[in-house]
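LOG
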Amino acid sequence: MDKPIASADKQRLFNCAMRAATAGNMMLYSMIEVSDQSLKDKLAVSCDNQPFIAKAPLVVLFLADYQRMFDYYQAFGADKWAEKQGRKFRRPQEGDFFLAINDALIAAQSMATAADSIGIGSCYIGDIMEQYETHREMFNLPQYTFPITLLCFGYPHHADLERRLIPRFDEKFVRFENSYRRFEDADLVHLMDRTEDWQYKGKPHMYEEGNIGCYQYQRKFDADYNKEMTRSVKAALKNWKA
């Protein structure tokens, strides 16, 4: 539904995100509320053409952000301190990139969980990782930031409330003890048993490739948007390390 989210509820969501666990209490993330309709319209196109993004009452961009802490270090003269100590002044690297991603996603999920608790639905948009150059320009993103996820919030239609619990894989495929487990083909053919009916019921085109596995491969893994995401992330990492 396009019903606006009350300002008190919106603030509650941001408060919960701010209380999320964070590495070393550094809060290596930033949140950008996208309220400008023209920006939402652009995101609806750049994020793999998903029109509902433009209609969402609340859209929040989560950034993996090491720029703020790096600027903080420089503000306190850490670069000069390192020089006096005869040490090379360190800049953010790949490990810092992934640590900031963790912080941002933990904050995002904290906000999504808080929204669910007060009857507000949410949808993750991973396609924000595509079109890195476009999104960097749209939101004036500095070097040590990366748009890791976009969250759209809104009140679900009453008809949707009865089907909110989307089926997941059987737990045996996900939960292990002490060691990772790989599966035999005979087990893997049942991986999608719980989700197949929900995702593909009434969609006979899924069998064009012969089976659900091949359909998933071409629709999710080998799709053009996924290839663009890989290119985009490589470009972001290259810029991060420049």
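LOG (cont.) second protein
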Amino acid sequence: MSDLLFRQDAYLRSAPAQVIAHTDEGVVLDQCLFYPEGGGQPGDAGRLTWDGGAAEVATTRKSPDGQPVLVLADGAEQPAVGTAVQQELNWDLRFGHMRVHTALHLLSVVLPFGVSGGSIGAQKGRLDFNMPEAPEDKLAVQAQLQALIDRDLNVSESWITDAELEANPGLVKTMSVSPPRGQGRVRLVRIGQGDEQIDLQPCGGTHVASTAEIGQIRIGKIEKKGKQNRRVYLHLEG
């Protein structure tokens, strides 16, 4: 299995690797800098270089057995199995995903309803909430969310076993996306520490280290998507 560098350090922008396999979609590395699409977060993009060659990474997906697969741009040359390569991440894209993803965790604190769907982009994202009525004051929601961001709360992770998660179902906010299970343990993302902890939920995505890195946000449209479903859009402002 690939060593998941993006999980060890979400801020790592470049790293060496070796090609260990090809699939129908792309290239598998022994250690992978690129986050594979999942949980509403898009796959990372960037570039591979090697002695005598280079290729753009268009996106990253998961193989059936869960390994990250680098999908190269159309027509790009694939480095052969065994080739030593250098990975270069599209950092602006990744950091945007990190900011939006963390902001959406905070949005689920401001709007404490079940989450029935979501999507993450580099400049905006959305969550679908299981709530019968839209918030009366969108600007008040925005102000609450911005106040949490501005507290400069620490974002960290810890791990629990699959059994511990089953025993604590209240940790799971997402109704449509199941937390990643099957490896014996589940990653929890925590916002705040001790008395200042405001959120704790299973998540496999990448996040900023501090909420202040999110910056200024704006709450966009709030759409009705069903009798019990309200879709709330969030935008980064700068």
